[in-house]
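Sample entry (236 residues):
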Amino acid sequence: MTQLGAGAAIARQTIDLYLSMSHEEASPVPVDDLVRGRVALSVRRHEPVGVVTAITPYNAALIMGFQKLIPALMAGNSVILRPSPLTPISSLIFGAAADAAGLPPGVLSVVVESGIAGAELLTSDPSVDMVSFTGSTLAGRKILAQAAPTVKRVSLELGGKSAQIYLPDAVHRAVGGAFVAVASTAGQACVAATRLLVPQDKKAEVLDAVSAMYQQIKVGPPSDETAMMGPVISAA
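Predicted structure, serialized as tokens:
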């Protein structure tokens, strides 16, 4: 009443309405379909969004592509896949395989470019209904701004690198965790938990052990089966 200026009668009716629902909590009928003991008709319709832009990062390019493409295609959407300019090959192969399997023309398109102009077009064009992006927080902010004028649906998976937290009885596992976080992808992944949180009294011990372990890591090209860590993907 104070905030909205609603009349006392309306306020009482609203309170009575919600009080009438509380005793029906165990009812198999959802609360939003049950009003004053009467079942109301509720219709929920699931339909495709339309055209979906899927923008994937360079790390785990194939898996990220699948995570975005498969659900969208199965739901009946058309998808424009825009892989990172650094890792386009797996997306192109998947596009060719989809074409060979008989996917109708235009249902899946793969856009490969060396810059970002195409990505900006795909996040702002009115013909696109939804954008799904995995990558940096900075890029995610830009995509939100580009999609806002046309009120697109936007799904963002941003940032990462959460810390590994080791309690006193698990400190001995910190070295192995540090190795996996860095060596598996040269630290280039959102799941690469490159920060360690350990008890203060174990800090020096863990630092020495992790430092010694890092000195033993052999860096080399992917073709070297004895290499424990490959190169970073670009000078940037």
